[in-house]
Description:
7 helices
Amino acid sequence: MTWNLPNILTVLRLLAAPALAVMFLYFNTPWADWFALILFVTAALTDFLDGYLARAWKQESKFGAMLDPIADKAMVLIALLVIIGFSGVKAWILLPATMIFFREVFVSGLREFLGDKASKLKVTNLAKWKTTAQMIAIAVLFSQGIFADKFVELTEAMDTQMIDAILMGQVEDLSGLIWVQTGATYSYYGGILLLWIAAALTLITGWDYFVKALPFLRDDTK
């Protein structure tokens, strides 16, 4: 193993994956949502940074090449588990998350079976966009939890009539309740839309990988 800055960033991103779940075990909302969002976004940024530094400083290594996709998958899959577990099992989130899980397990198994031959199947730009779309969608969904917590905090001392009156513009919104509700709505539905886009890209890249792997899967005939 080569311990340079790009590889250290990759290892830190890998360790950040289980730390996402720990945030919700040891902290209450809204702190857990804030910590998880900051941790996830920071880790996602290292995905770009470690690869850029490795190429710029000519520090690319087999260790980094092996660990980088593992760290990406761990971040995405554990984050999705956290979102599903703490936001409730909603079909519009569960279905695309299931597609992403299925593709990642399938492709990982395929790579394991191919062994050294898997290195001949190059990562496409679409696969990189897939990972980017997954991480953006997850970050937006994490932010939705922050907006939802803030809405609960602002309305804690209000009755239903007062909340409705503020949201309908009948009472002056001194606490920014309308802005918080708008943020919660857009981050929720926007996050779901982005997650479906990410799931579609995930399945497309999975199929592309399978098609490219087919020549290595055929039995030799005499």
